[in-house]
From TrEMBL:
Pfam families: LytR_cpsA_psr. The keyword Cell wall biogenesis/degradation does not apply. The chain crosses the membrane at residues 14-36. This is LytR family transcriptional regulator.
């Protein structure tokens, strides 16, 4: 199967997927009445998973679909693909995958980014393929389903819906097989949805490190250009940039010029999550009725969740979706290999299952004894999964700051190592975001 790293490069939409969920739910809490509740109730549309409660501990899969089409399957017009710098060539791969565990009562949440290049064995053959990259399960199953529906007199929209449903089921089953956990609910955003949400939210503020002589500052495939966005080459180092919608998309798509490729890119998507959550809570988004209406409209059009997930009932778990309570990591890999002509990540499935289970279902802490104190690492710094890259979400309670391309006052810890290393956050930094490569 032909594969192009440049054409297929896309990640980071999960930041806006989480942000949109938080925004929608917080609007209900804020009491915007019947209109908002009715709008929230209309979000959903998928039967890919069912039978799980909307409250209590749960596992959520966040998917970002590479699709250069509408949900109906109709190709996006050139005016849009040009504005987004994405071209017209691309598949239906889930190039963003984050599995998120929310502890009962919304005490905290732990998420794992799944590198899109992880080579896996599928639960069953999809379109004749029994193995492939984890992000390909969706596209293989979608193609197989749409081919089976040809000539049955269905509309393009019906074929598109059923094809996407097959893709969702396949991707969810593949993630369950890799991680050893059951997915209770999911949320999915396509490429156009990311772009439209980025416009509504006014873009993204990022803190960008310069690496390899500035190679990570520009990327022809994604269209990312940090210098044009205000990065000062003379100053160098770590600088804050505010990116518009198109450049936000380019920022999370770039990987070819990053030292650790897709692994570095997962740090970018995690930083986007932190910023979106900070913005939604600190910049008056919920007080602007016009912006609220636009956000709800985009959510209803582009955000897909399982129909059994009652977002209104989910409100008690909302505390977990904040920077204070949410931690992101990246699943470990063993190494790199060319398989069937594709650059792939080699993974140890049993090790991944262990890492995920330890994080999602930790053993109860032993009872403390009077007079005895045992030191232990905090959850945000404890090593897990060997090469697993860790991103500690920043507090969302920091003071607002004006976006600037000036370097931060305190030097953030940089990300290094074969899996990107640990990404830590200066607690006094604006926007509650880590600096990334």
């Amino acid at each position: 199967m032909p594969w192009s790293r440049g054409a297929a490069a896309l990640a980071g939409k999960a930041g806006y997927t989480i942000g949109c969920l938080v925004a929608v739910l917080a609007m209900v809490v804020s009491g915007f009445g019947y209109y908002v509740k009715t709008s929230v109730a209309s979000i959903g549309g998928s039967n890919a998973v069912s039978g799980s409660a909307s409250t209590g501990a749960m596992n959520i899969l966040l998917m970002g679909l590479e699709s250069r089409t509408y949900w109906s399957g109709q190709p996006l017009p050139h005016s849009l693909t040009n504005a987004m710098h994405i071209g017209s060539i691309g598949g239906q791969a889930t190039n963003t995958l984050i599995v998120l565990h929310i502890f009962a009562g919304g005490r905290k949440a732990v998420g794992f980014s799944i590198p899109r290049d992880d080579w896996v064995t599928f639960p069953k053959a999809y379109d004749g393929q029994t193995q492939g990259k984890i992000d390909q399960a969706y596209g293989f199953a979608l193609a197989e389903k749409e081919q089976s529906l040809a000539g049955q007199g269905l509309t393009q929209g019906q074929v598109g819906y059923l094809g996407n449903e097959a893709g969702r089921r396949a991707e969810i089953a593949t993630v369950q097989k890799l991680t050893g956990i059951k997915i209770d609910h999911f949320a999915e955003l396509n490429l156009l949805g990311f772009y439209e949400l980025a416009k509504v939210l006014g873009g993204v503020t990022v803190c960008l490190n310069e690496e390899n002589g500035g190679q990570n500052l520009r990327d022809a495939n994604s269209g990312f250009n940090a210098v044009a966005d205000g990065y000062n080459l003379g100053k160098g180092g770590s600088q804050y940039l505010h990116l518009d919608a198109a450049q936000s998309l380019a920022f999370v798509r770039e990987r070819d010029n990053l030292t650790n490729g897709d692994l570095d890119r997962t740090h970018r998507q995690q930083a986007v999550v932190d910023y979106v959550l900070w913005k939604l809570r600190h910049q008056g988004t919920f007080k602007d009725l016009s912006q609220l209406g636009s956000l709800l409209s985009v959510a209803k059009t582009y955000l897909v969740t399982d129909s059994g997930w009652n977002l209104l009932d989910f409100l008690p778990e909302m505390n977990a979706l904040s920077g204070d309570n949410m931690t992101f990591k990246t699943l470990p890999i063993v190494g790199f290999q060319t398989i069937d002509g594709q650059s792939a990540n080699v993974v140890n499935t049993e090790a991944i299952k262990h890492v995920v289970h330890q994080a999602f279902y930790p053993a109860p802490k032993p009872a403390s004894h009077p007079g005895k104190h045992t030191a232990s690492a905090s959850p945000s710094t404890r090593a897990s999964g060997g090469a697993a890259a860790q991103s500690v979400s920043a507090s969302l309670d920091g003071a607002a700051a004006t976006p600037t391309s000036s370097a931060p006052s305190a030097t953030p810890t940089e990300s290094n190592g074969p899996a990107g290393g640990a990404v830590t956050v200066n607690p006094n930094a604006p926007y509650g975001i880590p600096c990334v490569n």
